[in-house]
Amino acid sequence: MCRVFSTKSFPRRLLPLLALALLAASRLVQAASPSEDVADLVLRHGVFYPVDDPKPVEGSLAVRGGRILFLGADSYTLRFTGAATRVIDLAGRAVTPGLIDAHSHLLGYGRTLGEVDLRGAATFEEVVRRVSEGAARAPAGSWVHGRGWDQNLWPGARFPEHGALSRAVPDHPVWLTRVDGHAALLNAKALALLGLTDAARDPEGGRYLRDASGHLSGVLVDNAMAVHPPSPAADPFAATAGERERALELAGTKCLALGLTTVTDMGVDGDEVAAYLALRERRELPLRAALFLSDDDALLAQWFARGHFLDPEARLTIRGVKLYADGALGSRGAALVEPYSDDPGNLGLLKTTEDHMADVIARANKAGFQVGIHAIGDRGNLIALDAFERGLGGAHPEARGRIEHAQVMRLEDIERLARLGIFASMQPTHATSDMPWAGARVGERRLAGAYAWRKMLNAGAQLALGSDFPVESPDPRLGLYAAVTRQDLSGKPAGGWRPEERLTRAEALQGFTLDAARSLFLEDEIGSLAPGKRADLVVWGRDPMRVPEAEIPNAPVDMTFLDGALVFERDGAR
Ligand SMILES: [Zn+2]
């Protein structure tokens, strides 16, 4: 490839200079050796959203060696077009950078593809019915997994008890993860296999819910979900290396069809890292992934000694550590400064100490790793910020600390997050999922700092957007829609929930591209349509930046390109 087009030696602030050099170079193409400057791919007659420039570009984009060679007027790219160039006429269609999910769980998503989908179940009876159907298809005695139940959608909105489930599914152990991933409902067979009895004592940072007479209800909250199976057969999450790799391939392929070219896996253990490395080694990882290691002493010691990992094609990054300050709001595990408005006396749960977090942050930073702390309640966020400040010794934006979710914050802590240069890694669809009941949990006053994307930006913080899939759908169109409307898919509430926090489409797109890339140390490689960057692109059947807001979720992804290669094409897109 032509030297001038490589960004490797170009710091970001010099990129505009690079673009100028490129323009000059494009006029000199005739003089250069033709084989050096002929593009592999030219997308013509498109509307391109570069993201690092607010103005869309009508014209062409040329790709060579997997990187963007040129973006500009159609007439210029004619000069890059040779006999071997693949030319695709977009007929005016929109192109954005490949979308990035800054907080997701790719392997977990792969697993859910074999699970019973409990999202939207309007009653507990509906949950039992769906699980019974799933169990009927599962081999005798094997674990049946489900995910997505939410008692807030049921009459009475009370946590379930396992009785009806255990009667309907007596022979398979059942593990049903709540919609937020912070609680699970088990049936009697599963409780028995795991040796959980009424005598079980609540672990630190977790809870076994009980019925009125003190028996286990089957619901495990937060750290109580870290079960200790007495045998491998009793392990609800045992999987072979092959199963993990297949789950990743399946999930990655689904993501590409949604326009996601880079995803994250927040909190992976050693076996899971091994699955990624094996796939990458065989060049079978379908998309880009950035991994955040779980908070495990041995795993962290091993990786801190080895240093962070980025393969030459930037397909796999291992550079993060995921910590947990607290639980989630739905299960009242998020740690609050003052009690829950709908549960006086309950302050939620802290999952790790500030000392531990500060210690990991300091060691990670020394080893060249970044830390993302899950923090949902205002006390969880406060302690996470304290930990960053101590662990990094003040404001160190170059460490690229991240707070994951940053859901309910005191207004002064939003300012502090921005001052410390910590990324707010937020998920727009969490707001629209939680809006029916978030006010009941925290009350009107605390809602001012809840899901407060606009206040984050106004304070000067960088927003890295994502979905937290499989907690929410991986579909980034739903995230863009939620970010700009703060409405559910039926358009409610009119005008949006706390509409003062809405983002513009350009801001939302930046959160799902360039700022997400920055939050992963990948902004020199991906996140915008700048010459020199990797050609990760989405061609849209309808322009998500211009269709009426209500139609954003239905804007078709026509094509997805990864490193300039067409990796997904919708039937009928051409
Ligand atoms: Zn998550």
SSE blueprint:
Blueprint: H1 15-27, H2 34-37, E1 41-48, E2 57-64, E3 67-72, H3 74-77, E4 86-89, E5 94-97, E6 99-100, H4 106-112, E7 116-117, H5 124-137, E8 144-149, H6 163-168, E9 174-178, E10 183-186, H7 188-193, E11 206-210, E12 216-222, H8 241-257, E13 260-268, H9 270-281, E14 288-293, H10 297-306, E15 309-310, E16 316-324, H11 354-366, E17 370-375, H12 378-392, E18 402-405, H13 411-420, E19 423-426, H14 428-434, H15 438-447, H16 453-459, E20 463-465, H17 476-485, H18 505-511, H19 514-518, E21 537-540, E22 557-562, E23 565-569
The structure holds zinc ion.
Task: Walk me through this protein's architecture.
- The structure is a single chain.
- It contains 19 helices and 23 strands.
- The strands form three sheets. Strands 6, 13, 14, 15, 16, 17, 18, 19 and 20 form a nine-stranded mixed beta sheet that branches.
- The two termini are 30 Å apart.
- 52% of the residues are buried.
- It binds zinc ion.
- The site of zinc ion (ZN) has 4 residues, from loops.
Q: Major beta sheet, specifics? A: 9 strands, mixed
Give the uncertain stretches in residue-range form. 1-34
Shape: globular
Counting H and I runs of at least 4 residues, what is the number of helices?
19
Q: Nearest-angstrom radius of gyration?
A: 24 Å
Bound molecules: zinc ion
Distance between the ends: 30 Å
What amount of the residues lies in strands? 15-25%
Mean pLDDT: 92
- The helix fraction, in percent, is 25-40%
Got a strand count?
23
What structural class do helix, strand and pairing data support? alpha/beta
